[in-house]
Design a protein that fits this description.
Distance between the termini: 22 Å
Bound molecules: pyridoxal-5'-phosphate
Number of helices: 13
Shape: globular
Largest sheet: 7 strands, mixed
Number of strands: 15
Strand order of the largest sheet: 1-9-8-5-4-2-3
Structural class: alpha/beta
Strand content: 5-15%
Oligomer: single chain
Order of helices and strands: HHEHEHEHEHEEEEEHEEHHEEEHHHEH
Helix content: 25-40%
């Protein structure tokens, strides 16, 4: 049996182990110095003023929705081609969730579909309060286009950049220019990992304050933010309802160490994506789009089987590749087709572009340690499966 090649794999080296060990032997395991340093370094890299590190991106999405004022009676819209967390965050707040279909080329939320749906929503008085575009596979959405619509229709933008650490478009780092709040994930399969971990980033100081309170019980130790006088140096107040969504110092130490290697890890992802492009160009596949001015983080390399040119069903390709030890995966089952969303009223055919994409999609292995020989094996097995 040949060695199994996973679709994604974290890269942990001795410097990561040393960084976590140092934090583990320090005076602080939880709210120590590493967290603020990680937030500062992450913000500097992405040119974003305020960063709030939290325990995972799902928690980050939850408090981002709350900070943007989403609640019962409100509506949020996201992309159906995403992980369920992009939609659940609105439901946690008691808001209603709806979706905007994708652009088949980029597989991101279609700005044209968004514009059309906004026009309809305005006519029935049901505009969304928050729109949650997702940078699928690490390719930044057309955020300039979405910002224009946000200014016209008055919604807030929560960008789910869980796939897109380090990505940029038209010279702007992801999260730096258009969104009100941008969320990143540091789950082990993502571009940079803290094992579990997430972060909310914003250029708005008030939103950042709100996010900090929400991530830590709604408690402040800052006398300037208290109701009445501080009662002494021990004193703290809960000024609003919050959660314990904090990141640990151990995770932040790992994140800081990972960030120092981000350029090298990204470089390797870019090289591997380019070599997939070249090696797969003759196969009956639709490859990830190349958008002028966009630099994807290449979290995923997802291809679509072109059934006009290839009779092999996706399921057969998937099963044969798995049997050959290639850890292919599928991203994503459209969120609205999950049973828990169908019970809200969603059905087959609601978002046809996302459904078409899902029927043909396969994610191929892509991670910094994937060797040229392993990639060649992926390509040759795929070649056999499609012929
Ligand atoms: C991974 C992921 C999340 C959730 O991230 P966690 O850190 O695992 O909570 C949310 N949205 C998208 C698009 C993701 O890929």
């Amino acid at each position: 049996m040949p060695e199994f090649i996973p679709y994604s794999c974290q890269s942990i080296d001795d410097s990561d182990v040393a960084a976590v060990t140092r934090a583990l032997r320090s005076a602080y395991l939880t709210q120590g110095p590493e967290i603020a340093l990680f937030e500062g370094e992450f913000g500097a890299l992405h040119q974003i003023e305020h960063c709030v590190a939290v325990c995972n991106a799902t928690a980050a999405l939850h408090i981002a929705c709350l900070a943007l004022g989403l609640g019962a009676g409100d509506v949020a819209w996201t992309s159906p081609n995403s992980f369920v967390a992009s939609a659940n965050c609105a439901r946690y707040c008691g808001a209603e969730i709806d979706f905007v279909d994708i652009d088949p080329l980029t597989r991101n939320m279609s700005v044209a579909a968004l514009a059309a749906k906004l026009e309809d929503a305005r006519s029935v008085g049901r505009l969304p309060k928050v729109v949650i575009p997702v940078d699928f596979a690490g390719l930044p959405c057309d955020m300039a286009g979405i910002r224009t619509l946000a200014d016209e229709y008055g919604f807030r933008i929560l960008e789910d950049a869980s796939h897109a650490v380090g990505a940029q478009r038209d010279g702007a780092m992801v999260g730096s220019k258009y969104a009100d709040i941008t969320v990143f994930s540091f789950h082990a399969v993502k571009v940079v990992t803290t094992a579990e971990g997430g972060l909310c980033a914003t250029q708005d100081a008030d939103l950042a304050q709100r996010l900090r309170l929400l991530a830590s019980h709604g408690i402040t130790r800052d006398p300037a933010r208290m109701v009445g006088e501080s009662e002494g140096p021990w004193y703290y107040q809960q000024v609003s309802l919050g959660y314990n969504y904090r990141m640990t110092d151990l995770q932040a130490a790992l994140g800081r160490s990972q960030l120092t290697r981000l350029p090298a890890m990204m470089q390797r992802r870019v090289e591997l994506a380019a070599s997939y492009d070249a090696k797969l160009s003759q196969l009956p596949l639709r490859l990830p789009a190349r958008i002028a001015g966009a630099e994807s983080a290449w979290h995923l390399y997802a291809v679509e089987i072109d059934h006009a040119r290839c009779a092999t069903p996706r399921r057969d390709v998937f099963e044969r590749m798995r049997a050959a030890g290639i850890g292919v995966n599928v991203h994503y089952i459209p969120i609205h087709l999950q049973p828990d969303f169908r019970q809200l009223g969603f059905a087959d055919g609601d978002f046809p572009a996302a459904e078409d994409y899902y029927r043909q999609a396969i994610s191929l292995p892509l991670f910094p340690a994937l060797s040229a020989a392993q990639q060649d094996r992926v390509v040759s097995v795929l070649h056999e499966c499609l012929h």
